[in-house]
Amino acid sequence: MGNTGPEGTVPRAAPGGAGGRLRRPGGDAGEGRAGERVIGVDLGGTKILAGLVDRGGAVERHRETPTPLGSQAELLAALDDAVASLRDERVVALGFGLPSQIDQRTGIIRGSVNIPLDELDFRTRMSERFGLPVEIDNDGNAAALAEYVAGAGGAVLDGKLYRGWAEFGHIVIEVDGLPCQGFCHGRGHLEPYVTGVAATRIAQQLFGSAADSHRLVRLANEGDEQAREALAGIGHKLGAGIASLCNVFGTDFVVIGGGFGVAGFDWLTPAALETAKRDALDTAGATLKIVRGELGTMAGLIGAGLLAFDALH
Ligand SMILES: [Zn+2]
C-alpha cells in the first residue's frame, strides 16, 4: 500500500498476475542455515515496525516505535535503534520496506512522499553501519512479496516482484480532487479517499468527532446502514483505482492489506469489485479477484525480511 501506512487500503497489487513462480526463500534452506534470522523493517508514515524474521517468513519478535518526522537524521537514528535492539548473533542480513522512490540498481533513495528521506544512498549507509548485506524496496512491494510467499499468494509479475516506482496510492482517481496526505502535493489521489485516515474523516462527518475508522467498521458489522454505505463509498473509490491497474498492467489479482483494509474488507470489497469490473476493459477485468491480505499489518515487516534473505544470494 504504496504506503499509506499501516492503516492503508491501497491495493497491494502488481502487474500481470502470478504468471510464474517466485523462488520461495524457505525452499532451499540448508540444514545449517535454518537458524539464520534477518531483521525486517517496515517504515511507515506513523510507525516503524521491525522484527526478527526466519526463512519461512515467521516473525520471532517485533517492536513498534513512532516514526520521527522532524528530520532525516532523527529518522535514521530511529531506524538504527530498531535494528540494534533486535540484532543478535543469528542475524545475517537486513531488509527495509520504505515508502520511497528507490533506484534499485544503486540502492539510492530518490525521494519519499510521507517521510523526510531524500537523495540518500540508503543501502550503502545501512550496510556499512551494521556490516551486513542490506536489501531495500518500496513498502508496498515488500508487503506484496510477503503475501505471495507467506500469505494470500499473489501480486507478482512473471514470477518476480515488480520492483518499480509502485506507489499505487498516488494513482489519480479524481481530477482536482482532495489534497493528498503528508508531503504529497497532488490532488485526487487514491490515498485521501481509501486509507484508514480517510475512513476516520468520513466517520467523523457522520458520527461526530469521537468516531474513527475502527468505529465505522464496527458499526457496519453491527448493521448500521449509514456506516455500510460509507464503507461501500470508500470501496467504490478503491475500485476505480483498481480498474486503472487492470487497464494499464493487466492486474487480475489484488490483495487488500493494512489494518483498515483487512478489518473493513467485507464492506469495501463488493463495491470495489463492482466498480473495478465496470471501469476495467473487458479483457482486463474478466478474471479480476480481490482478496483479503492474510498477514495483516505484519505484511510489510515480513516482506522486508524476505527481501533481506534475497540479499544473501
Ligand atoms: Zn499523493
Structure write-up:
- This protein is an alpha/beta fold.
- The protein has two domains: 20-158 and 297-310, 2-Layer Sandwich (Nucleotidyltransferase, domain 5); 168-295, ATPase, nucleotide binding domain (Nucleotidyltransferase, domain 5).
- The protein has eleven helices and nine strands.
- The strands form three sheets. It has a five-stranded mixed beta sheet, with helices on both faces. Strands 5-6 form a two-stranded antiparallel sheet. A two-stranded parallel sheet has the order 8-9.
- α5 (196-207) packs across α6, α6 crosses α7 and α7 packs across α9 (265-279).
- The longest helix is centred in the last third of the chain and has 25 residues, at 225-249.
- Mean pLDDT is 83; it is low at 1-31 and 153-165.
- The site of zinc ion (ZN) has 6 residues, from loops.
Topology:
Layout: E1 37-43, E2 47-53, E3 59-66, H1 72-86, E4 91-98, E5 100-103, E6 108-112, H2 122-130, E7 134-138, H3 139-150, H4 191-194, H5 196-207, H6 213-221, H7 225-249, E8 253-256, H8 259-263, H9 265-279, H10 282-285, E9 289-292, H11 299-310
Parallel strand pairs: 1-4, 4-7, 8-9
Antiparallel strand pairs: 1-2, 2-3, 5-6
Helix pairs in contact: 3-11, 5-6, 5-7, 6-7, 7-9
Bound molecules: zinc ion.
What integer is the average pLDDT? 83
CATH class of the largest domain: Alpha Beta
Bound molecules: zinc ion
Oligomer: single chain
What name goes with the CATH superfamily of the largest domain?
Answer: ATPase, nucleotide binding domain
Discrete helix count: 11
| Gross geometry | globular
β-strand percent reads 15-25%
What string, H for helix and E for strand, traces the elements in order? EEEHEEEHEHHHHHEHHHEH
Terminal CA distance reads 27 Å
By CATH, the topology of the largest domain is Nucleotidyltransferase, domain 5
Uncertain runs? 1-31, 153-165
Structural class: alpha/beta
Secondary structure tally: strands = 9
Strand sequence of the main sheet, in spatial order?
A: 3-2-1-4-7
What is the CATH architecture annotation of the largest domain? 2-Layer Sandwich
